[in-house]
Every structure is written in structure tokens, then in C-alpha cells.
Amino acid sequence: MFTSIAGKTVIVTGASKGIGRGIAKVFGRAGANVALVSRDEGAASSAVKEITDSGAKAEWFGADVADWDSVKDMVARVAASFGHVDILCANAGIFPQKKIVDMEPSDWDHVLSTNLKSTFLCVKACIPCFEEAGQGRVVVTSSITGPITGFPGWAHYGASKSGQLGFLKTAAMELVKYNTTINAVMPGNILTEGLQDLGQSFIDTMAASIPLRRLGSVEDIGNAALFFATNEAAYITGQQIVIDGGQILPESIDAIAAID
Question: Which ranges in the chain belong to alpha helices (H)?
Fold first, then answer.
């Protein structure tokens, strides 16, 4: 039985949909105060309602996570509203598919800013809150794409996700001063709106390549993030966990066929 995080305040960036929404709902069910951060209040409002209907506290906070002033203001508003900030789930990310030959430098910069720079900014902005609270937890949403695997069209996305893991190794040492841990979840193919937009054929193909023969759920990622936020994970920092149903394990498609 894990120690309750009820009453703790968690910031979840990119929380209006997909994995971020799943993380927010998991923390809400655990009794945390949930600050859902996104640009679009409309998309986040239904998630806020779901969490508050369950009896937890939740509010939407608008912010551009790639802009320092916007991030500082967001963290200050969350702290003012809930009284403290204890956990950061740096989840915001985009993955527009475009091959290198067609990619403009501005496309690269946009993805790196949204996915990687935002992680640094949000962690930096939360440090005073962690210092005041006497401890903190950071959970970064990375990916298997980039650090472990590749896929045509996602060079910028893969670079940003690898960069997050490089960042957290040093951040883990620096955050010790504030009794704060930082770890990463590395999702495989998770059934989100983004993957649904790629079509059923893509979904079926990806599911067939996973030993568990299904895509993961957003709750699968949320549960891992919740673990990293618990007292029981207090001695884990600078680490990452792959959550992919075994997707990266087969050495060939023949290995999948051999399961049956």
C-alpha cells in the first residue's frame, strides 16, 4: 500500500488531451489537487469536470510552456490557488510528422521548444516551490522514439525526447539540494487522439508488433507517473522506465510470430 498523495498539488502540462489528460485523471483519483496546464481551456474543461466530479480539486491554467514568462506566471498562479506545488509532470509535447528533406528549420525549433525547452523551463520555475515545501517530485514524459527507436518523419521529435533524458541526468543531481527527484516515463504506442488521427490501419499494424498485442492506455502511463511521485519512490532519481507492452523487445517480426 503506497503512502497517499491526497492533498498534494500536481502540475500536469499538456493536460487537455492524450497522455497528459490520463496522468491528470490518475492523480485526481489519488486525491491530489490537479493543475491542468494547456493553451486551450475548452479542451481541458471536460477533464477538469471529470476530476472535480470525483471529489478532487482541479483547475485549468493557461500557459505557453515554451515561454519563460508564461511558465513563471503559471506556476505562481497554481501556487496561489492551491497554496503549494509538490509535483510536476512535464508532459507537454507535439509530434508533427515531417521527413528531414521537407522539414524547415522553424519546424525543428518549434518541436524542440515545445517538447524539450519546456521541460527545462517548468522544472526551473518549480524549484522555489519545491524548496519551500522541503521536497518535490518531477516526472518527465519522454518516449521510446528517439532514445531507443526511430520512425521516419519524427527526427525532431526523437531528438527532443532523447534530449529530455540527457537533461534529467544532470537535473537529478542538481535537484538533490531541494530534496527533489526527477524521473521519466517512456511510453511506447499509447492509444491517444494523436494516434487515432493516423488511422485504424496504423493502429492495427502497431498493435500487431507489440508482444501484448495491444496499444497502451493513457492510464498505464499515469500509473507509472503516480508511482514516481510517491514516498515509496523517494530513492529513485535520474531514471527512466519504458512502458510499451514489450514493443522494443522483439529482434524481428518473426519473433512476434513465434509467440503464438
Answer: 18-29, 41-53, 68-82, 105-112, 118-133, 155-175, 193-196, 200-208, 218-228, 253-257
Integer Cα distance of 113 and 174 in angstroms: 22
Q: Is the pTM of this model over 0.85?
A: yes
Catalytic residues: 157
Amino acid code (one letter) for 195: L
Environment class of 80 (CB within 10 Å of its CB; exposed 0-12, middle 13-18, buried 19+): exposed
Cβ–Cβ < 8 Å for 156, 103? yes
138/157 Cα distance (integer angstroms): 21
pLDDT tens for residues 171-204?
A: 999 999 999 999 999 999 999 887 778 788 888 8
Task: Supply the angle between the helices 218-228 and 18-29 in degrees, to the nearest 10.
Answer: 50
Q: How far apart are CA 108 and CA 189, in angstroms?
A: 22
